[in-house]
Write a structure and sequence with these properties.
With 154 residues, the protein is mainly alpha-helical. It is built from five helices and four strands, in the order E-E-H-H-H-E-E-H-H.
């Protein structure tokens, strides 16, 4: 097979995969290759038969709904960590003025948690470690949701 341009084959990838598959099948029928049936993984055949798939999903299609859901999960988790930390610290005045109040409950902006952690960690490290766990849990949940969303991709 001729080699041209930086070590790449002149044969298209789909044709080269087909040639390889045909050569492998011929060697197997001739008895020169024996496969252990216990090691046979039929689900891996999907990688060698890409050209036979009837519907191909374009990689350029951006799934904005999934992106928004993932970012919303992270935002809600960070905001929950902020509110939980403010509650554990008794909504002290040193935390700064709240963003707004709902039914007498002060609501702080979501990134306030990180500012407080930087400035007040020495005074209540256990509170900020728990708040950090709440914030980080959002990332893990978002990863799980994104992973599952890939399976049901339209």
């Amino acid at each position: 097979m001729p080699i041209v341009g930086g070590g790449r084959s002149a044969v298209p990838a789909s044709q080269s995969a087909s040639n390889f598959r045909d050569a492998f099948a011929a060697l197997r029928q001739a008895g020169q290759i024996r496969l252990n049936p216990a090691l046979s993984l039929p689900f891996l055949d999907i990688f060698s038969r890409r050209s036979e798939v009837s519907e191909v999903v374009s990689a350029t299609r951006v799934l904005w709904g999934q992106i928004i859901v993932v970012f919303t999960i992270v935002l809600v988790a960070v905001w929950a960590a902020t509110q939980w930390t403010a509650w554990r610290l008794g909504f002290q005045g040193q935390l700064g003025s709240p963003w707004f109040e709902v039914a007498g409950l002060p609501l702080y902006p979501p990134p306030a948690f990180f500012w407080w952690w930087y400035f007040f960690d020495a005074y209540a490290p256990h509170v900020f470690m728990e708040g950090g766990a709440i914030a980080a849990s959002g990332s893990f949940i978002a990863i799980a949701v994104a992973d599952r969303a890939l399976l049901v991709r339209p």
